[in-house]
Design goal:
The structure holds 2 protein chains of 2 kinds. By secondary structure, chain A is α/β, with parallel strands linked by helices. Chain A folds into 5 domains: 21-74 and 104-330, TIM Barrel (Alpha-Beta Barrel); 494-563, no CATH class; 621-788 and 818-842, no CATH class; 866-1031, no CATH class; 1039-1158, OB fold (Dihydrolipoamide Acetyltransferase, E2P) (Beta Barrel), CATH 2.40.50.140. Chain A has 50 helices and 24 strands. In chain A, strands 1, 2, 3, 4, 7, 8 and 9 form a 7-stranded mixed sheet that branches. Chain A is globular. Mean pLDDT of chain A is 87; it is low at 74-104, 996-1006 and 1161-1165. Chain B has one domain (6-112). In chain B, 13% of the residues lie in helices and 47% in strands. Chain B contains 3 helices and 7 strands. In chain B, strands 1-2-3-5-6-7 form a 6-stranded antiparallel barrel. In chain B, β2 and β3 form a beta hairpin. The mean pLDDT of chain B is 85. The chains are: A alpha/beta, B mainly beta.
Chain lengths: 1165, 113
């Protein structure tokens, strides 16, 4: 006989459960159960996974939730659910909440609600599930509560509201389990049996026929909650109250071992060290075997006043309730059935298929208005093919919905770009969902949507990050909040977070935790012990582990936490669009931005049949939007001239607005700029590794950019696809098309098989199968070994009109070799083409409008590099950087015109436009302070500024230190004078008000004269250090300059001069670290790239294993570095270093100074 | 109303049946005989104070301790003879016995007077 566990928390009960739903269900099944339940705390976070796991195991899923229940009543304060002083059960920690404070979760009464299946008596299909979803959403309410630690947060429903959700017309749609933590169970634990019976009656009145007593025995200390005695009393209460008693084990882990992990999770939930709160009583809350549960049932019955039959009755009632709660995924959840918005919601009338055809046809004229007849025919043929596939799947509504969202964003003038394999579809291009022309790049629709697709295809849309929330709200407004919700995301424990929470549990001190956490953050928590033995930069931590037992223990606990869900948050880009029943399908809760979010994450979408639209906020899109705005503002009708574009460029309108998605893709100046490898700010090709690849590749066409982005990934780097590509492109070898029939479609990559699209075409040519079939086969090639035979026989049988074989055995061997080698390396070209679009657009903007473009990236900071480097880039390009000035700087980096165009038709020359530093980056400035500065300017004097902008004293001083008040100081005043004046003003006891007549004189009449003169000028090194502190970038001169005497002494080379060295020269470089990368490598060994900036440019050093060992902990932590290495030419204009060793520049500086001082020389001149 | 236990936490010698149920034990040089059917319960330990390692698989032994709650009578003479209820626990790793606590009305006066 089996036993069905009805109360099981998975790891998706954050900071509580320790086991994944799939593992729990599998264990239940292997114990002989034909149904398994999940009842996570506060929601259905793990429910879809659980249902999926049960389906795969062939057992019935049962789903419920554990929620807090409040019973507001006049005598609330002595409700037995709380523990009035003195009546706390013995053995419990005495430190309860102070009286009068709101109840915390540990004190909140909790019950389990189980959904009845659609097959149960009186329950319609999906009715139980829908009730559960709506009940949970109600328990979460609308507002986000501020709580400390997850143990203190709980979704709570007033008891009086339960009825509204759980009582259907023909009876209850769910059952309430009143267990040890319910008001009833707690009353029993206190021996308040009369009270317990009354509470039970109240529940029965709320949900007639839907109440059961949950008996739990964890063999705790006799008399405690969950003790044998407690369980026996609960059983007696059920008998007296004539409700079923069911046995559960209130499971929170799969096996006893995980109880230790649960202890650590409890600590994380309480935000307190173990020992400072009441821990779980023992390790009994695991998924016990049917035998163990039956034994428990007998023990409980024996301990009760009932006769022995009570045990069997309890077990039978448990199975009876389980049967009532069995869900049918198809009937109750519409498993994998698409739930997309009703057509009326997207403004479509009539047959969606016909509407889609009409819109696509209109798109042909719009997109290809000037195409030749032949081209147009080709386009229309492809469009018909795609539309037939789309409509045969019934996806017309889906495409119309996505098109509707795209159109809405265009109307809002939000920049957007589709990405992903959707770019391979002509229809998405015609509907203006995507801006990539699939015909231009030979992209295949079949890769996006074959003929076997059963789930909704993914279309992802990038939008300006700064306007992302605006877009979300507009989607909610347009489709209604009954059809839209945000998707959520489960954050799981990884290295750093796991160390922090494990350290907290052990009560280690902050410094020790920080030391470990900050060092291991790149490692996987699961393999932490292994990482400690292998990674040189963790040597220090590894030594600590050997000598410090607590740290040793910390490592074990960290490994235990790995991958467990920590908390739920709003997914950065997922919006769920459903039909008007969406809120009966998914529970929702408030998100950080206030809009409701689903409790389901991206892994749940397909199974739940929910359409997720990825609307991803991309800073680079915001940067480009900002740049386009600045271009229009500064140049107006002269925009084309200013950017050295053709005067009649069709993509620039009269006002100077550039239609960026319409710029030609063959602009030679843009490619020339890319080839210099000064790619900083160019989307995706600015990293050191990419700069190296770009230097070697020397791209001169759009296809090269697609290839570059596709090749710069682990697979192709390991598969050495790069070398043949480059050698052929540069003419060192002839293209090898493998077989002459492949030449037409391998042109775009010089014969190297890079893209999925290539594989599809090869299979299509050789085996004579359709492209859709080819895509099926491609997807299975990794998994199935038997495909080789099929490939060989079909290809061998492929004959021409004379009956001659098209492919010889030898050729077949070779082709199969290539296909096999291709393996997982390939990339979907449609992805690459979509990715390459913003790459090209940013490169184009940087080439034609450098000042406006750099202002955009400084404002929206999209890239990998710190702003200090962007400023250096501006200087390199001859764009002046204008100092911070309270009368000129704003919340963004504006472009200012410094001198008029040379002639009315001249382009912009370097020096015509400058970039004004923004208040945005002043440390500690608040939004209100910024607003006051912007609203009250211009300011006439330092005192005037102090009085009307009312900055905090700290901010006032900081602004002075970085020169933002220099322009108010008056003639002949230096920074030192300005600072002296600031000190004068701030030393007064109170800030003068404008109406302050006593101080008036001093302020308004003769202010400029009040600014002292002749103060000592602030020394350069102090200026720089203040700038670094306050702005996180230096404006005056590069930070490295202050080390210059030592660097010259050591013979350190400037980055800009590296290129003058022979290959293989050993040199020293220094600088501030701007990037650290451990990119994929052919060998699979780890290689670390460190880029340093020294003001003259950027040096890239490569650390192989030995150098990593020598550099040790410097590899990832230290900011200012000196690196010794050998030069390595990487192409026409590229050079990098193979590092031997690295040193901490600050430590060297101290040593060097000490040595100099010892030598009796003055080093501080 | 139950009586709160007096926490003892002393190592003691225990004689058990073949099944491991306590029969007799010696505490502070007094031998006690168990006179009731034991009530078994499970307590927990503050493993984080003592453990130096806690790899996967070691959890339940570090965390749990079985306790036999028994009534016992002193069988020998001694300075402090207690007639009451005793919690006898067995360390799952060292297999040593521990007297966790004693319930008795007069125990405070008897032990710590």
């Amino acid at each position: 006989m089996s036993f069905t566990h009805l109360h099981v928390a998975s790891a998706f009960s954050a900071h509580y459960g320790t086991a994944q739903p799939g593992h729990l269900a599998a264990q239940a099944a292997s114990n002989g159960a034909d149904a398994a339940a999940i009842t996570d705390r506060d929601g259905l976070y793990g429910a879809i996974r659980h249902v999926g796991a049960c389906r795969a195991l062939g057992i019935d899923p049962i789903v419920g939730v554990e929620l807090g229940v409040s019973t507001p009543s006049p005598d609330d304060h002595d409700s037995p659910g709380r523990h009035p002083a003195g009546q706390r059960p013995a053995g419990q920690h005495p430190a309860g909440p102070p009286s009068g404070s709101p109840p915390i979760a540990a004190d909140a009464d909790r019950v389990v609600f189980l959904a009845h299946g659609g097959g149960a008596v009186g329950v319609g299909p999906g009715a139980g599930w829908a009730s559960l979803c709506r009940l949970i959403s109600a328990a979460h309410g609308r507002a986000t509560r501020k709580v400390n630690g997850s143990a203190n947060s709980v979704a709570t429903i007033p008891r009086a509201r339960v009825r509204a959700f759980l009582m259907g017309d023909d009876g209850p749609t769910g059952t309430v389990l009143l267990g040890p933590d319910s008001d009833v169970g707690r009353a029993v634990a206190h021996g308040a049996h009369g009270r317990a019976a009354a509470l039970l009656e109240a529940w029965k009145a709320e949900v007639p026929g839907g109440v059961a007593i949950e008996v739990v025995c964890h063999l705790t200390e006799p008399g405690e909650s969950r003790s044998l005695r407690h369980a026996a009393r609960m059983l007696e209460l059920a008998d007296a109250g004539r409700v079923p008693a069911v046995l559960t084990n209130a499971v929170r882990y799969r096996e006893p071992d995980e109880a230790l992990t649960a202890d650590v999770l409890d600590a994380a939930g309480h935000l307190a060290a173990l020992g400072s709160f009441e821990p779980q009583p023992n390790a009994q809350a695991f998924l016990k075997t049917p035998d163990a549960m039956r034994a428990l049932a007998r023990m409980i019955a024996d301990a009760s006043s009932l006769d022995r039959r009570a045990a069997e009755e309890m077990l039978a009632a448990t199975e009876e309730l389980a049967d009532r709660c069995r869900l049918d995924p198809d009937v109750d959840l519409g498993w994998r059935r698409a739930k997309v918005p009703e057509l009326s919601a997207i403004g479509v009338e009539g047959d969606p298929d016909q509407v889609l055809w009409r819109r696509a046809e209109a798109g042909v004229t719009e997109r290809f208005g000037d195409a030749s007849m032949a081209k147009r025919e080709q386009i229309e043929r492809r469009m018909r093919d795609e539309l037939e596939t789309i409509t045969s799947f019934g996806f017309a509504g889906y495409f119309l919905t996505v098109a509707d969202v795209s159109a809405m964003m265009r109307d809002m003038r939000v920049r957007n770009a589709a990405r992903g394999s959707g770019a391979g579809s002509l229809v998405t291009y015609l509907l203006r969902i995507s801006n990539v022309d699939p015909l231009e790049h030979d992209l295949l629709f079949e890769r996006f949507l074959g003929n076997k697709r059963e789930t909704l295809p993914d279309i992802d849309i990038d939008v300006e990050s700064a306007r992302r929330h605006e877009v979300y709200r507009a989607i909610f407004d347009r489709y209604g909040s009954n059809r839209v919700t945000l998707m959520s995301m489960q954050s799981t424990y990884r290295g750093r977070g796991a160390v922090r929470d494990a350290g907290l549990a052990l009560g280690l001190d902050e410094d020790q935790i920080d030391l470990v956490a900050n060092n291991v953050w790149r490692s996987n928590a699961r393999d932490m012990r292994k990482a400690l033995t292998e990674k040189p930069e963790l040597r220090q931590i590894a030594d600590l582990v050997k000598t410090n037992a607590q740290i040793d223990l910390l490592v074990d606990l960290t490994e235990r936490l790995d991958r467990l869900p920590r908390h739920i948050s709003m997914h950065p880009c997922g919006v769920i669009l459903g039909n008007s029943d969406l809120l009966s399908m998914t529970p929702v809760q408030p998100s950080g931005m206030g809009l409701p979010m689903s409790q389901f994450d991206k892994h749940d979408m397909n199974d739940a049949g929910l359409l997720k639209l990825d609307v991803l906020g991309v800073r680079m899109q915001s940067s480009m939007a900002f740049a386009l705005g600045e271009i229009e503002r500064l140049n107006g009708p002269r925009t084309a001239l200013a950017g050295a574009l053709p005067i009649d460029a069709p993509y620039v309108n009269r006002q100077g607005r550039i239609e960026l998605d319409a710029i030609p893709h063959d602009d030679e100046p843009t490619y020339e700029a890319i080839r210099t490898t000064h790619t900083l700010g160019m989307f995706q090709i600015e990293s050191p590794g990419q700069r190296e690849l770009i230097g070697k590749m020397q791209p001169d066409q759009y296809e090269d950019l697609i290839a570059d982005i596709s090749l710069f990934r682990p697979g192709p780097m390991k598969g050495n696809m790069v070398a043949p590509y480059l050698d052929t492109k540069h003419g060192f070898q002839k293209p090898d098309y493998i077989h002459p029939t492949f030449a037409p479609f391998l042109q775009d990559s010089y014969g190297v098989v890079i893209y999925h699209e290539h594989v599809l075409r090869i299979l299509n040519a050789t085996m004579g199968i359709s492209l859709a079939e080819a895509d099926e086969m491609r997807r299975q090639m990794e998994k199935r070994a038997d495909l080789e035979g099929e490939f060989r026989s079909k290809t061998a049988a492929n004959v021409d009109e004379h009956g001659r074989r098209r492919y010889t055995d030898k050729e077949i061997d070779r082709i199969w070799g290539v296909l096999k080698g291709f393996g997982s390396f390939g990339f979907c070209k449609a992805h690459g083409a979509a990715f390459a679009l913003p790459t090209y657009q940013t490169a184009w903007l940087k080439t034609h409008y450098p000042a406006e473009f750099l202002a955009g990236i400084l404002t929206h900071d999209p890239g990998m590099y710190p702003k200090r480097l962007l400023l250096a880039e501006a200087k390199r390009m001859g764009v002046p950087v204008l100092p911070l000035d309270v009368n000129a700087s704003s919340e963004v980096y504006h472009v200012e015109r410094l001198r008029p165009p040379r002639t009315p038709v001249a382009r912009t020359y370097a020096g015509d436009l400058g970039i004004r530093l923004s208040l945005l980056d002043v440390q500690g400035i608040t939004e209100h302070e910024t607003t006051r500065i912007l609203e009250n300017r211009p300011f006439t004097s330092i005192a005037d500024f102090y009085q009307r902008a009312t900055p905090s004293r700290r901010l006032f001083e900081r602004l002075g230190q970085v020169g933002a008040l220099d322009s108010l100081g008056g003639d002949g005043r230096n920074r030192g004078d300005v600072m002296a004046r600031i000190r004068q003003l701030t030393s007064r006891a109170s800030r003068p008000k404008p109406a302050d007549t006593i101080n008036q004189l001093d302020f308004d009449v003769d202010d400029s004269a009040s600014v002292p003169t002749g103060s000592p000028e602030m020394p350069a090194h102090e200026r720089i250090s203040r700038e670094l502190d306050i702005l996180s970038m230096e404006v005056t001169e590069h930070v490295i300059e202050s080390y210059r005497p030592m660097l010259d002494d050591l013979g350190v080379i400037r980055a800009a001069d590296l290129i003058d060295n022979w290959n293989g020269t050993t040199v020293l470089v220094a600088g501030i670290r701007i990037a650290t990368q451990t990119p994929p490598m052919r060998s699979g060994k780890r290689v670390v790239f460190i880029s340093l900036d020294d003001g003259s440019g950027c040096s890239d050093s490569t650390f192989f294993e030995e150098a990593q060992n020598r550099a040790g902990s410097l590899l990832f932590g230290t900011k200012l570095l000196l690196i010794q290495g050998r030069t390595r030419r990487t192409g026409e204009r590229g050079i990098s270093l193979e590092a031997d060793n690295a040193w901490d520049l600050k430590a060297l500086w101290r040593d060097w100074q000490a040595t100099r001082a010892a030598a009796g020389r003055d080093v501080l001149t | 109303m139950r009586i709160d236990a007096q926490r003892i936490d002393e190592r003691i010698a225990v004689e058990t049946t073949d099944e491991g149920t306590p029969l007799r034990f010696t505490w502070r040089r007094v031998v006690y005989g168990v006179v009731s059917a034991p009530e078994v319960w499970i307590t927990r330990q503050a493993w984080w104070r003592s453990a130096t390692r806690a790899p996967r698989g070691s959890g339940s032994e570090l965390l749990e301790m079985h306790v036999w709650r028994v009534d016992a009578l002193p069988l020998t003479d001694g300075a402090h003879r207690v007639d009451g209820t005793f919690d006898l626990a067995r360390d799952p790793i060292s297999r040593e016995w521990l007297l966790l606590g004693v319930f008795d009305d007069q125990i405070d006066q008897q032990l710590f007077a």
